[in-house]
Amino acid sequence: MRFQPGVAFIFLTKLNPMKATKKVITLDEFIFQKEKDFPFATGELSGLLRDIGFAAKIVNREVNKAGLVDILGTTGANNVTGDEVKKLDIFANEQFISALQVSGECCGVASEEMDDYLPINTEASKNAKYVVTLDPLDGSSNIDVNVAIGTIFSIYRRQSFFGPCTMEDFLQRGSRQVAAGYIIYGSSTMMVYTTGNGVSGFTLDPSIGEFCLSHADIKMPEGGKIYSVNQGNFLKFEQPVKEYITYCQSEDKASNRPYSLRYIGSLVGDIHRNLLYGGIFMYPSTRSAMKGKLRLLYECFPMAFIVEQAGGKASDGHRRILDIEPNELHQRSPIYMGSKTMVEKVEEYMKQARITESIPAASATVTA
Ligand code: AHG
Ligand code: MN
Ligand code: MN
């Protein structure tokens, strides 16, 4: 039997272990196959995705050791081997950045963990066409309590023509993403990504160290019965958001209400669940944070791209998230995303409130 590189086989028959019954497609193999579908593809985007997948495995290894931190040494101190124990979000940031620095396909990175973007000016990347934005570790408040956390990334084609990357390369509207994805470090580790042609999910098989295609062409249900929001902030939400939440809680057999409230506090975890089961995720503006909490470049854009590619919707309450033109790296936005009909419903409440108060849509929208 000839094994192709990057292709693993599952042996389902105990009696005849040499009888391969199912071919498992690894992430690398899948990326390679997809590249072949585009005759003019140069392989650069594929290389970038593979490098991100590789960095994810290293971060996954450290995430899995998070509970041992008190044994191996607390963050900030030196561990038993004398190395400084880094906070996981800093470690993840460094891992992804160094993978991108050596990849040769990326000319700059912007990360939630850094004030400014980082140009990559290595010899290998002098012709690089892409920039990457990162939330290296999302849901960091959940690290120490063994709850799902993640990494989120976006890839854009650079806008500047030559030399070091510039701010305009990063301040592109979300609809210009060429790829986006997340890694969820949960009960199993998965990488889910899109290049604008559907969404694919890969589960890490730790025994072979490979991400294997487990969720082909993910489509989220058009409706759902899960709503995800930090309801502790209820009193601080705008009136139409309060009304929509009350709608979710009200009894109505025909529309399966009341819905179930599920909120992990890790965006990646909440979106991953809703992507598979259907549901809406909301991080609205509050009285104390008029622009909401989540960041456009690192959280809203990539997740909105994935949700749309899976058949869902992502809105700031008034307009499509992916149409927002960012004007700063760490810009925030309120966000409502998930199953199409649920997002449309919350938009309806927002629209009705605008009509009642005679506010034009443009001034109701918080942009910066
Ligand atoms: P991060 O850990 O990258 O700072 O992101 C945390 C985010 C997001 O993952 C989550 O949806 C949200 O914060 C939770 O915020 P609240 O605790 O305010 O609900
Ligand atoms: Mn985050
Ligand atoms: Mn983060």
Write up what this structure looks like.
This protein has 368 residues and is α+β, with helices and mostly antiparallel strands. Helices cover 31% and strands 21% of the residues. It is built from ten helices and 15 strands. It has helices spanning 27-36, 44-64, 69-72, 88-103, 167-170, 239-249, 267-277, 296-309, 340-357, 361-364, and strands at residues 7-10, 22-25, 106-111, 118-119, 130-138, 149-157, 177-185, 189-194, 199-205, 210-215, 226-228, 260-261, 280-283, 313-315, 335-338. The strands form three sheets. An eight-stranded mixed beta sheet has the order 4-3-5-6-7-8-9-10, sandwiched between helices. Strand 8 and strand 9 form a beta hairpin. The chain is globular and about 60 Å long. It starts with 6 loop residues before the first strand and ends with a helix. The structure holds 2,5-anhydro-1,6-di-O-phosphono-D-glucitol (AHG) and manganese (II) ion (2 copies). One manganese (II) ion is lined by residues 89, 112, 135, 137-138, 140. The site of one manganese (II) ion (MN) has 4 residues, from strand 5.
